[in-house]
């Protein structure tokens, strides 16, 4: 043992010790560097869980969609777990959800050339690939140029007046009813007014048939795209087929000059006659009529129901609005309102805007990456779908003080840029936003000046299987005519 020890201390071996120590230090450094590089690679990709191969988190997404919490609950839970940017996998595609006004500005406000619009496959198949909601950047500009004139304020005047007439008739029927479902009646009057504007349908039987088919399509927008008889998606495809056949017949009759109406469809066909090669195809016209009916009816009616609910929960605001309305010289006017209603009551406009913020009917806006890039310091791969999380921005305390409080006066001042996305922002902002706001203002004015109301059931559960957050109970109210109140 002693001889062995002495041998280890002899010069030849002793000279190797520094080399061994150096090799040990280098090897240890390399071993530390390998995990660090892996961590950096993970950090470069948004946090999240892409779930099982192919399936991803589709089952959890569909479970939220078919629950009374609504599809956004899937996003909300992951936003709380991972932060303002996370990734997931839905229906075979990688989705990234981002809650940021800066990203909203980049992706939506300036129409980044690195991204284009992309909705989930089921939406594209049901609305049609020529729909404004699903078209590429260039195609969108082309279609929007053709149909935008229909949504100028002057052109919408007759539609707003028609809507007002429908609201007055509807509210008149409420007086003898013990309970009214606001959402049900709002869906009906918005649908009838929009169909009159777009395709001049007023016959109640025809409207009922079309309404049922539209309902089938809208109810399956986020359904699993399984084309088997009996499935929700299959029924929706058949409903879309019936709608397209009906619209195709309308177009054929008008092109043969067997019918002629003053409406959106006729306006498009007239333009197409003069534009020659620069005209919309029949498929583009039909896809976008379907899109406009669904987008205009469901989102506006849902917003009306939420607005009625929020005001019932904030009686001071409701009574302030009523007092302001009753001071107006036109409070009892039997003449229908036109687009001037947008300037009639500034405080009411703030109530509409606050209702839209809190309801966040369109919860996120999707864009697909056309090449590898970075967002919020995270790497985004080509083909990934980046969703701007509008609802989260609407409830961000950095954008809005006390965001969970219904406070219309917050809009006395301009909100933070790119923080209000009820209608989107940028080049793809909703063309019908002024029409939607006018409808909400008309409904609000007629309701407040005709009745006092009370929401009977305060349940905030959402309709199962709905793309947009719609109150499951339909916002039931009881009303008392204002004129019958004791002095």
UniProtKB/TrEMBL annotation:
Binding site for heme: 430
Keywords: Heme, Iron, Membrane, Metal-binding, Monooxygenase, Oxidoreductase, Transmembrane, Transmembrane helix
Entry keyword Methyltransferase: no
Pfam families noted in UniProt: p450 (PF00067)
Residues passing through the membrane, by range: 12-31
GO biological process entries: brassinosteroid biosynthetic process; brassinosteroid homeostasis; sterol metabolic process
The protein, known as: Abscisic acid 8'-hydroxylase 4 isoform X2
Organism: Canna indica
């Amino acid at each position: 043992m002693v001889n062995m020890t002495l041998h280890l201390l002899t010069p030849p071996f002793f000279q190797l010790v520094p080399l061994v120590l150096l090799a040990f230090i280098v090897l240890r450094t390399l071993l530390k560097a390998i995990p660090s590089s892996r961590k950096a690679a993970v950090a470069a990709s948004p946090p999240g869980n892409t779930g099982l191969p192919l399936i991803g988190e589709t089952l959890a997404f569909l479970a939220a969609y078919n629950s009374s919490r609504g599809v956004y609950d899937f996003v909300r839970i992951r936003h709380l777990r991972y932060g303002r940017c996370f990734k997931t996998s839905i229906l075979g595609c990688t989705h990234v959800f981002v809650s940021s006004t800066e990203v909203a500005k980049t992706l939506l406000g300036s129409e980044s050339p690195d991204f284009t619009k992309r909705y989930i496959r089921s939406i594209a198949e049901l609305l049609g690939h020529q729909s404004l909601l699903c078209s590429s950047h260039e195609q969108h500009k082309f279609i929007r140029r053709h149909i935008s004139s229909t949504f100028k304020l002057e052109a919408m005047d007759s539609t707003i007046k028609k809507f007002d007439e429908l609201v007055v008739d509807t509210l008149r029927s409420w007086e003898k009813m013990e309970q009214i479902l606001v959402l049900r009646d709002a869906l009906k009057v918005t649908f009838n007014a929009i169909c009159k504007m777009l395709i001049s349908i007023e016959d109640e039987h025809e409207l009922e048939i079309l309404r049922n088919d539209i309902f089938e399509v809208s109810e399956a927008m986020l359904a699993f795209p399984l084309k088997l008889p009996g499935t929700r998606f299959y029924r929706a495809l058949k409903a879309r087929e019936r709608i397209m056949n009906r619209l195709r017949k309308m177009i054929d009759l008008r092109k043969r000059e067997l019918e002629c109406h003053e409406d959106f469809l006729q306006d498009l066909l007239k333009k197409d006659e003069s534009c020659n090669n620069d005209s919309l195809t029949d498929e583009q016209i039909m896809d976008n009529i379907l899109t406009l009916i669904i987008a205009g009816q469901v989102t506006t009616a849902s917003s009306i129901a939420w607005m009625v609910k929020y005001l019932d929960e904030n009686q001071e605001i409701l009574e302030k609005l009523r007092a302001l309305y009753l001071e107006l010289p036109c409070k009892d006017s039997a003449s229908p309102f036109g687009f001037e209603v947008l300037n009639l009551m500034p405080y009411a406009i703030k109530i509409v805007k606050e209702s839209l913020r809190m309801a966040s009917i369109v919860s996120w806006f999707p864009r697909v990456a056309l090449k590898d890039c970075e967002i919020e310091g995270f790497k985004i791969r080509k083909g990934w779908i980046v969703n701007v999380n509008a609802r989260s921005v609407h409830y961000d305390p950095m954008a809005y003080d006390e965001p969970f409080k219904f406070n219309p006066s917050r809009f006395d001042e301009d909100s933070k840029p790119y923080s209000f996305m009820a209608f989107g922002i940028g080049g793809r902002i909703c063309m019908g936003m002024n029409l939607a706001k006018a409808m909400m203002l008309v409904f609000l004015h007629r309701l407040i000046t005709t009745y006092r109301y009370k929401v009977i059931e305060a349940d905030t559960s959402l309709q199962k299987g709905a793309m947009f957050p719609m109150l499951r109970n339909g916002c039931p109210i009881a009303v008392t005519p204002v004129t019958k109140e004791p002095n």
